[in-house]
Amino acid sequence: MAETILIVTEDEDLLDDLLRLCAAAGVEAQVAHGAPGSQESWASWGGAGAWEAAGLVLVGDDCAGTGGFGGPDGARPGALRRDGVLLVGRDLDDPGVWERGARIGAEGIVMLPDAENWLAGRIADAAEGIGRPALTLGVMGGRGGAGASTLACALAVTAARTGRRTMLIDGDPLGGGLDVLLGGERTEGLRWPAFAESRGRVGSAALEESLPKLHDLSVLSWDRGDSVLIPADAMKSVLAAARRRGGVVVVDLPRRIDETVAEALVQLDLGLLVVPAELRTVAAANRVASRMRMMLRDLRAVVRTPGGPGGPRSYGTGLDDEEVAGLLGLPLAGELPWEPGLLECVETGIPPGARRHGALSRFCEEFWAKALGDDAAEGGRGR
Q1: What is the rounded distance in angstroms from the CA atom of residue 191 to the CA atom of residue 208?
Q2: Bond before 276 cis per omega within 30 degrees
Q3: If we measure between CA atoms, which residue out of 375, 25, 307 comes closest to residue 147?
Q4: For 59, which DSSP code?
Q5: Average pLDDT across the chain, whole number
Q6: CB atoms < 10 A from the CB of 1, how many?
Q7: CA–CA distances in Å: residue 43 to residues 29, 46, 62, 86, 349
Q8: 29 neighbors 155 (Cβ within 8 angstroms)
Q9: 11 φ, ψ to 5°?
Q10: How far is 304 from 320, CA to CA, in rounded Å?
Q11: CA 342-347-353 angle, 5° bins
């Protein structure tokens, strides 16, 4: 349900502009025509209740220096202050606007029409009840078949199992579809082609509600059609909407970095590069890492034990997990051993990370405990 927006102004032109922005965000605003006359008259002021409860308060500059907002009638500085108050005006050359903003405890000064687009987004955030943005994690393989998609699924499954709001986004159009890996290719919900023309702002709640729900998480994957192209603008809009919803967002990314993948990388908080401990793979992964680091501040290596399912598990001489991370020049996020029986489980509809005592699940639970810090202990939704 949308949060309330309170508008306080007697300026009819300003009111029309603010009501128009609220309508565009799909929220009906409550209007208080003027500020309280004094601190003593606050309780009888028509906007008093909404001032306490509204998700966002927009105070016109015409009302900011009067009465109960800290004007000549002498409201005490700091009285009735709250988060989420913006002072809205039109005169960029008025130096007194900053003092009036401070008097009402505004977190920002917004000047129209210059900042109209920014204010429209802020109103939309408040209407959706936006809180802390999601911790957004990208997973990419150092070579084909490294296990990046498997790890991305396992990370999402284990995050959702703790009660966090979790979204898994398939950013690899040639990967076959993460919904298949999760055993949900027939589950109803929208896939990537439905969002290919997305531009600008996508509603975060609408996005979450439209996607397939698998294993307590929302999944944006591919359908079985021929469409394999998502424009960079669509990735930007969809990923921004996913992040605004809060919780955890996991993105499975291809090794080939085009404009769309680059758009995803710049929105990530953290990237994991999955690298099997093989000398040739390390050489290939180094090229991938060098490109990722141009767009991603925090990139870490996940080193897989060599050999694969049924193969030898021991490292070659001088090529353990720390050596691999050192050769790549990346911090080590951890070692990921092969999990016996994983392929058979996936074929029977048991997704990666679902087995609580499996190697994948243990790795992911330890990773989230470190990445989420105190929120991990609280089951929080966010960083």
Answers
A1: 12
A2: no
A3: 307
A4: E
A5: 85
A6: 7
A7: 20, 8, 21, 21, 60
A8: no
A9: -85, 110
A10: 10
A11: 40
With tokens 């790549």, the residue in question is 328
User: Are the beta carbons of 5 and 54 closer than 8 angstroms?
Assistant: yes
Q: Would you state the structure tokens that stand for residue 221, as one six-digit string?
A: 């994957």
Cα distances (Å, whole numbers) of residue 9 to 17, 60, 108 = 11, 5, 17
Q: Are 171 and 261 in contact (CB under 8 A)?
A: yes
d(C-alpha 192, C-alpha 234), whole Å: 9
Quick one: DSSP state of residue 189?
Answer: S
Q: What's this model's pTM, rounded to 2 decimal places? A: 0.71
Mean pLDDT of 244-264: 92
Cα(22)–Cα(119) distance, integer angstroms: 10
Nearest to 278 by CA among 152, 107, 179, 141: 141
Neighbour count for residue 14 (Cβ, 10 Å): 20
Percent of the chain scoring above 90 in pLDDT:
45
What are the DSSP E strand ranges found in the chain?
Answer: 5-8, 29-32, 56-60, 85-89, 108-111, 135-141, 166-170, 213-214, 217-220, 248-253, 270-276, 299-304, 332-336
For 84, the token pair is 């989420």
pLDDT tens for 2-54 read 468 999 999 999 999 999 998 887 788 999 998 887 777 777 888 888 888 88
Rg of the chain, C-alpha, whole Å? 25
